[in-house]
Structure formats: structure tokens, C-alpha cells
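[Target chain]
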Amino acid sequence: AVGLTKLACVVPMLFLVDHVVPRLPCALPGGVAWWMGMVFMKETFLDILRQHSHGLDVLIVISMAAVIMYMGMLEGIFFGLLLAMLAFTWRYSDLAPVVRTVENASFLHSNVSRPLAQSDLIERLG
């Protein structure tokens, strides 16, 4: 019912818009367009940057844009790639090590019973 009501209101307005809009003050559609643009900017750029990116990534993109503007496209991409590699190295260098313990073959031997010749060879070669 709501969809039909909306359709019944919107369709006549499509035919009346060319008579109504010229009579509006210029500030009204301009203000609405400005407001919609600001809402779009907030919902896309600011919310995405705030929720889904690291602050260092934003700094890399801004510095890439500056290098692209003042030096060139290829230099900016190269500069951004270098900064991204440095940021990756910096972020993951202070993680806990993956290897927790080191063992040797005397502790980690196989439980499979083999013929004596194979066992001697394995013991000799490690």
C-alpha cells in the first residue's frame, strides 16, 4: 500500500516539475544539492576512512596525491608503492614470532618401524 501511494504521488510530480522548479528561489535547489553532496561525501569518504582504513594508509594516499600533482603519475605510484612496502614492514615486524620452539631429530623421530638398513641410513643421514 505504501509503494502504491508513493507511486501515485511521484508520477504526477514528474509532469509538474518543469512548471514548479523555475518558480522556486535559486537558493532552495542549490541548498538541497549542496546538502545532498555533503551527505554523500560524509557517507562515502569519511565513514569509509574512519571505519575501514588505518591512519597510515590515509597518509600514504594523501602523499601519493601530492607527488602525483607536483611530479607526475608514475612517480606518485612509485612513491606510494615504496611507502606501502615500508608501512607493511613496519606493521608486521613487531608481531610475535611464528616459530615458538626448535627441536632436533633426536626428539622428533618417526614411530614407523623400518627394516634395519633403512633405520641405520636414517640415523646416519638425519
Remarks:
- The mean pLDDT is 84.
- The CA atoms of residues 1 and 7 lie 10 Å apart.
